[in-house]
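#help-structures
NK: newbie question, is this the right format to request a structure? protein is phosphoglycolate phosphatase
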Amino acid sequence: MDYHFPSKPLGVLFDLDGTLVDSAPDLAAAVNALRVRRGLPDLPLEQLRPYASLGARGLLGAGLGVVPNDPDFGRLQGEFLDYYASHNCVHSKLFDGVEGLLAWLEAHAIPWGVVTNKHMRFTDSLVRALGLSSRAAVVVSGDTTAQAKPHPLPLLYAAEQMGLPADRLVYVGDDLRDIQSARAAGYMTAIAAAYGYCEDEEVSTWLSDCIVRSPVELLHLFKLAWDA
């Protein structure tokens, strides 16, 4: 991985699920809870993991075969979200290497924050449970602004809250909408995190500035950017 930042960044924003946090186990558990209530067997985590970044729509489709235009979708979505709201940090944890990455940024006084499409109802409890809420310079949820990613508004709002120009910020995410949002917001660099829930072949089509395959690789990239 060779990438040279056009200038020294002033801060870093991250997506949450699939980038900082592996929340797939708790999301899969919510799907399986609904299956068990209906007399269906659990599905293995690895079967549901690829749908973790697609939210309730993707997970309910994969786990129960329902789509948004199904008459039962709204009821099942509500049941899924209610279960997940009270079980969203049972097994979720930071990806290996993320704690070291964040600690390095903090040790070098580099502000970082979170911009996620996860609604505040779920984001707040998760970042608190993982000890991130007091460390992040800003946390923007999917319903913080009038538009969610891939619209640029959440990333522009995060930059405003940090008091930093968007064109000196880096955004790291594990979905195409993350790269699209960073581009539309005029961020200096958009980095694709290929260690989350996406496939390598898919990531290569996103036209990100670079692709990292682990938080350790991302830390190495940041050390080069800040000459540390």
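mod (FA): yep, format's fine, and the tokens are attached above. The first helix runs from residue 24 to 37.
NK: thank you!
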